[in-house]
Structure formats: structure tokens, C-alpha cells
Design a protein that fits this description.
Layout lengths: L6 H53 L1 E2 L6 E4 L5 E4 L7 E7 L4 E8 L2 E7 L5 E7 L3 E6 L5 H16 L10 E6 L5 E8 L13 E6 L5 E3 L9 E3 L3
Antiparallel strand pairs: 1-5, 2-5, 2-8, 3-4, 5-6, 6-7, 9-10, 10-11, 11-12, 12-13
Keywords: Membrane, Transmembrane, Transmembrane helix
């Protein structure tokens, strides 16, 4: 059986193919146009973000240092922003309900904050103040805490707790216990101190009393009294 295609059918097929080619060509052009517009929008958005950050830096109001611990009260994820606007969200950095962090400054309705993770890393950015609550707690040490921290080098030297010079030691103070301040004494990592051996130890100081104890040279939970200031 031989199929016979009329000239009109050939013409119809050619017109159809031509129209399809035109449609595909237009779609490709639109793709390039949208890509170009997206690139332009990204560039302008980046410029606006930098301008807003600069404006906020010159006009921001620093928070009261005695009340700088904030926490999230919004439900779900609260994203940090590169600038004081929800338009510049940092997709990888967010907090959740109950997270506490430090607030540094405020611009319009946004607060610049820093959150410290359990592994020591930190993230920072701007969050709308409507999503936060001030805990009325302070990040800075009390007068007694600061005093305890300041006398640690002399206490270690007087009680001969370490042979390392003070410049090779670092201290971490924990004041969460109701009775004692706990100070962890560790070796500072730098070129001068890396080759010196120092086993970490703790010093605890009774709050309001000044009595001091350490587990240096003993098991972790075995403390002996030492001379205080």
C-alpha cells in the first residue's frame, strides 16, 4: 500500500515545524532575558544590602550592657539576616524557640546578635526585635567574678599549681553553680607554649567567702584547699 501525501499536507507540516521552531527560539530568548534580569537583580540586591549595612553601622544604637542576653520567642525557625531587613536572609543560619544569645546593637526594628554554639563556633546577623525577648540578664561578669578571674595568676603562682608562666595559661570561669565559681585552667596554644606540658585542672572559689580549692595533681573530683587572697 502506497501512502500519498498531498502538497497541502507537506505545506501544513512545514508551517507547523516553522511555528514550533519560532516558539522554541522565543522560549530560549526569554530564558536568557530572565537569567539576565535575575543577575541584575542579584547585583542590585547585593548593593542595597551593603548600603543598608553601612547605614545601620553609622546609625545603630548599642544596647544597654547590663541587659544584653536575648532569647527567641517566635515559633519555628528564625533566620539571621545580613542586613537589618528580612530581604537578606542567611539561609544556613537560624535559631529556634528558647535559644539565648547576645544582643549588641539596634537599628530601627532589628537587633544585631551573636549566637555561640556548643562547639565554640558562632553565627551573627540581624533579627527582627518582634521575634525576641530581653531576659534582663547580662553577659558581662559581676564585680566578684571579675575579681576572681583577675587574681588567678597570683593564686596559681603562690600555690605552685603550674610551672608555666602566666602567658601560657588561659582561664574559663563558670558561675552557674549557686555555691562556687569554677575556673578551668588550661594551656594556651601558641608558639611559645605548645612545647610545654600542662595538665588542665580546676580551681573553685566559694561565692561571697573566698575559700579556694583545686583538683590539680589529683583526680577530677578530689579537691584540696589552697591559699587564697
Amino acid at each position: 500500500m502506497i501512502l500519498y501525501i498531498t502538497p497541502w499536507l507537506w505545506i501544513g507540516v512545514m508551517i507547523f515545524l516553522f511555528l514550533m521552531w519560532q516558539i522554541i527560539d522565543r522560549l530560549m530568548q526569554l530564558k536568557y532575558i530572565f537569567s539576565f534580569l535575575f543577575a541584575v537583580d542579584t547585583v542590585f540586591a547585593s548593593d542595597f544590602c551593603e548600603e543598608l549595612k553601612l547605614k545601620a553601622k553609622t546609625e545603630e544604637v548599642h544596647l544597654e550592657p547590663n541587659h544584653d542576653i536575648l532569647k527567641i520567642i517566635s515559633k519555628g525557625r528564625v533566620y539571621l539576616n545580613n542586613a537589618p531587613s528580612n530581604k537578606y536572609k542567611i539561609e544556613s543560619d537560624f535559631l529556634v524557640t528558647g535559644d539565648q544569645f547576645i544582643g549588641y546593637s539596634e537599628y530601627e526594628k532589628f537587633i544585631f546578635v551573636a549566637y555561640f554554639k556548643s562547639n565554640g563556633d558562632s553565627i551573627d546577623g540581624w533579627i527582627n526585635s518582634s521575634q525576641l525577648k530581653n531576659t534582663s540578664l547580662t553577659n558581662g561578669p559581676s564585680g566578684e567574678e571579675q575579681m576572681v578571674f583577675n587574681i588567678m595568676p597570683d593564686i596559681i603562682k603562690e600555690n605552685k599549681l603550674s610551672l608555666l608562666p602566666s602567658k601560657c595559661l588561659k582561664y574559663e570561669l563558670d558561675s552557674r553553680d549557686k555555691t562556687f565559681y569554677s575556673i578551668k585552667v588550661m594551656n594556651l596554644k601558641n608558639r611559645e607554649c605548645d612545647d610545654k606540658i600542662n595538665h588542665p585542672f580546676d580551681i573553685i572559689v566559694r561565692k561571697g567567702g573566698g575559700e579556694m580549692y583545686t583538683n590539680q595533681g589529683a583526680k577530677k573530683d578530689e579537691y584540696r584547699r589552697i591559699k587564697g587572697k
